[in-house]
Amino acid sequence: MDNKPLQMGVGNSAFSNKKLPIIKKPQSLDSPQITLSEIPHLGKLNIRCAGDDRQQISKLTGYNLALQTNQLSSKAGRHAICLGPDEYLLLAEQGSETRLEKMLNSDKIINKIAVTNVSDALCALSLSGLKVRELLSKGCAIDLHPDSFGRNKSVQCDLALANVIIACIEANETDEFLCICRTSFAEYVLDWMIDAGYEFGIIARSYA
Amino acid sequence: MLKIECPFCGNRNETEFSCGGEAHIARPLAENKITDLAFSEYLFMRDNPKGVFLERWCHTSGCRRWFNMARDTVSHEIIEIYAMGQKPKTAIGKKAFLSNWRRKSKAETASTPIKRTAK
Amino acid sequence: MKQKQPHRLPANSQCITREKTVQFTFDGKKYIGYEGDSLASALLANGVSLVGRSFKYHRPRGILSCGSEEPNALIRVIRASSAEPNLRATQIEIYDGLIAESQNRFPNLKLDFLSINSLFSSLFPAGFYYKTFMWPASLWMFYEKIIRRAAGLGKVSTTDKDTDRYEHKYAHCDVLVVGAGVAGLQAAYIAATSGARVIIADENRQFGGWLLTDNDFNINNKPALIWANNIINKLHLMPNVTCLVRTTIFANMDDNFIVMAERVTEHLSQPDAHLPKQRLWKLRTAKTILATGAIERPLTFSGNDLPGIMLAAAIRSYIHRYDVLPGTRAIIFTNNDDAYYTALAIHQAGGFIRCIVDLRDNPKSFIITQIRNLGIDIRFGHAVIAAHGVRHIASVNIAKYDSKAAQPISNIDHIDCNLLAMSGGLNPVVHLHSQRKGNLIWDERTACYRPENKSDDWVAIGAANGTFQLARILSEATKIATSIISKLAKNNQRLEMQQTPEMPVSDEAKQNWAPLPVWSIESAQSYISDKTAFVDFQNDSTVADIKLAVREGYHSVEHVKRYTTTGMATDQGKTSNINAIGILANTLNKSITQTGTTTFRLPYTPTSLGAIAGRGIGSLFDPIRTTRMHSWHHSNDAKFEHVGQWMRAWYYPREGESFQQTINREVHATRHYAGLLDASTLGKIDVKGPDAAEFLNRVYTNNFATLPIGKCRYGLMLKEDGMVFDDGVTTRLAEDHFYMTTTSGGAAGVLAWLEELLQTEWSDLNVYLTSVTEQWSVASLSGPNAKAILKASMSEDTDITDDFPFMTMKDSFIAGLPVRIFRISFTGEMSFELNVPARYGLALWSHLMRVGKSFNLTAYGTEAMHVLRAEKGFIIVGQETDGTVTPYDLDMSWIVSKKKADFIGKRALARASMNEPHRKQLVGLITKDPDMVIPEGAHAVIDPNKELPMAMLGHVTSSYYSPNLKHSIAMGLLKDGLNRKGQTVFFPMLDGQAPIEAKIVDPIFFDKQGDRLRG
User: Fold this and answer.
1) Can you give the pTM of this predicted structure?
2) Which fold does the domain C1-129+136-162 belong to in CATH?
3) Does domain A43-117 bear CATH number 3.30.70.1520?
4) What pLDDT digit, counting tens, does each position of A27-38 carry?
5) Assign residue C509 a region: left if phi > 0, alpha if psi is -120 to 50, beta otherwise?
6) Taking the domains of chain A in order of start, what are their residue ranges?
7) Which chain B residues have a beta carbon less than 8 Å from that of A69?
8) C257 and chain A: CB distance < 8 Å anywhere?
9) What is the pLDDT of residues C395-422, one digit of tens each?
10) Domain C296-425+515-521 carries which CATH code?
11) Is C792 on the interface with A (CB under 8 A)?
């Protein structure tokens, strides 16, 4: 009997059914102005905790949870997003989430915490380029002007017909954004972005 | 489309929220036996005033937190937004709260443990 | 091809490009115009004045205006991709290859068969349709067909789809300026210099507003247009300013939510594929400045709808903006000074002013003197009593007129002409103000309704505010923009108000802006009828209609509007409303203020449905959610069904198999060997916290506090009214950690409901909920061979299949994948629900199918799942329940705890009405004919031969053919059903089919003892 560990030990990406790259652009443009890719299997932990415990969690994990709702903090490629008064999303390099989960669940000082691994439930997309804000504004009612949506700003909102988390990682000429959605909406979000990005030129490619 | 200030996320479009209807409907405690009629005040009776209305709202598409709102159903003016479990602070909101028939209802009286008065 | 444009003047305007000729087609005939022309200006240049037939009487109609208020010139534009009806010729920009056609005529414009209606206009008065077709009601079906053919405006595309691209865009700004005329430009500039984010939008193809028409004033000692162009250039260069042309702000809603339609490529011959035809902007702005200008009022006299009769300022626009002189022998009919500028323009363009007919008795002003000095015939205190002509104005009747007594007081003069310019005063465009329930004030001096500027959100300036003189407009715009910015700057550090904004100086010659309102001209001649004195050109309502409505008892302005349909056409009465109110006021002998106004509602101008739909069409209409095993289902020829947004494998037909054959095979295989179902869509919620058990105890009817770790329990959830809301199996993973499953369709609703309880009712409970629906892929392995397959799929060291009792959970590995296994069953067979992190779903599924091959493992879909569970009498919430069904109605009293002090729904279940004997209860049904499957939803009766309407007992909720039992099975909710077991009921069918006879039985059809699932 074939009981050997499977070939696809890393599992499937959210876009296994898609053939990447997909490029859509006006004829007049030489190259797309927006780049889109899934960050496959990015570790994602949903944290619910009381305010008093934030310091201890920050100390243990190295993530800064001293955040207001809709703020993001980044350190060495790790991001913490504050989703609500007692809710956070930690983004960690692939595989490290289980270690963090165990660490938090076994800590004796933390009084009140719920750590849930949502790495597969959510899909993280990286978006970058000159026209990302304009692309998002076609389906997102949030004011994305750099004055009000700068670096380390995040938001949970609707993007067209999907609920998403949008976070600004870099605010400069080639803005870099994260867009996190439920995995089952990932194909819809991708299709929507390719359609909306047509005007600016968009390439959806595998994560590099 | 209303602009609603979520206590946590700030100003957002009405479409991001869901309205949970009338606020301050206290759930009768099971230990306080009340009649079907009194229970129906809790279960079925809802206000639909022309003017100030105290409502519960949830920021469904955002932080998913519930909060209370005092809103004028005629002008659509949002008079105040206040936390779950709290009572309105503005004079208009207070008046709407205190003058509501529910304050005297048997169902609401039954939502707190009955005080046993010493003889 | 060089074609003559007989009405085109020598080149003068900057608004059209004479070097660029444009060829277009109107009603099949080719014409030439210039880049920058509107269809209206190009048609007028070519001498085409008849452009449509009216709605009711099919009267010939021409171009009345030069803007979006146009009621007559409604045009259908045909493109390869689509055809759009009811566009205003005054707003359509011509492009090479434009194909336009007139509407509401058959067979053509000049010869229209239905124009016979016009001869019988006395037969079609106000309320005609209400009165005539009221009785008998049964004939309405007949009338309707005829009326529908005659009525209706325009034809939509004959192809099934509009293939044009429409997009949406959200935007935010500090200040929105609506309209880019003098007032708007000045206000936008002041706002922009403060650093505010400004959007200025105008519905025309270029900024400038009426300065493009009237440019004989100086601002800051230079021609006004130079001032305007300077501001426009500056605005375009400022990074904080967005300038939008061809953009109609059509909705002004709560809290300054503004919707506007930008026509992006509609005016282009060959639009870029990547750009939308239209872009719908959804804008939130801190402040709105309404600089929407004003619309001229027509005058109301017999025959005032003939082609060649136009608004005076519109004629001036055609001359100055488009180098088009619409007629050579003109009559000017006015009640104010503004039309004198039109007289001047016609005169300077080489036209001949037959005479100026002025309703006022002895007005004096600079312009009147100027006109008089040109030797033009001016007749004060006169009126045009009637206009005559067949398809174009040919002559008018003029008489001295007593406007107080409303009658001519002299003999009637007959004067020939081919153009009539009329001006009845100006109406500020208050629509966007009114949409927000802003009040209107009747201004006696300027004889117009102007907005009462009371709100903090928006303010009207310039002509939109009833301010019609250039110098005053400039100072008003400056003052108000400054004050708005100062207010905004208090709460916004980005903004900084300049100390003293520059106030432009105008040298405008003050004109006497005091129109004499005369709402309708009465002929007092029997041969001149007020049935052709049109108030609403688009809906064909006349002075006679309004008078008739009053005679019939309609006095409220709202009633008269609806009875006569005045102001209810696609132009919403932009040119007619105030005239109608004036005529109504006169008829009722009331003042305008006493008469009141109707409310303008959105949209300001008709908006394409395509723009409203945006890109939410086709595959983007609704997200389709798929599981991680989807590609396997797809490549194994599964048919799918939509469950909410989920796409679930429905059944897997093999070649040549029918639907029923497939289901029978899948059901049979699962009962006899093994089946595998993709159950990933099941809702899953992590319930964590010290109070988790207490919380579940409160939301489920049965007890969860006593559930041991590692054990699973089926739970039923009610709403507070005692009705079944959801069900599912919940497993205790740790003392303070439960794993709850919900129905696929109910997942979001259950999570939201539980969150609501935790936040609003029991905030003292220490519990957190997290949706993990998509964290796990779930394969449900079921059937007599399930255990053997599971064993075979695991290596020896991870084999946990022994000592794995029903309703327990174990963690292990399958082929190296971490898997959480629940031994629960929805089929009645021994089952294992295998949960793996979602990314491994496909790997797990493929592995099981491979391993299961030698055990006859069959993939089955949701349809077979339904049959399997129905054979066992398992309910599906939402199918057996509909929000009116209690656990007792389902005969599930065993799951309602008697011991718990409280749970959601407990008190409601104790209500006296819950014991009423007529409650519908869940029963099984077996048909007399074993092959007859009762349609779901069929209604049960006791005696199908009774007289109609007969009392119904209840309805069928689930119904299938059971291949295991070899007969059909059904479940239904029947009144007092639990006491009716053994009785016979009938299900009457449609179309003369015989009623289906069935026996009421227990709903568990198969393996009543449940030996199979316990194994």
Assistant:
1) 0.94
2) Ubiquitin-like (UB roll) (3.10.20)
3) yes
4) 999 999 999 999
5) beta
6) 22-40+120-205, 43-117
7) 8-9, 63
8) no
9) 999 999 999 999 999 999 999 999 999 9
10) 3.50.50.60
11) yes
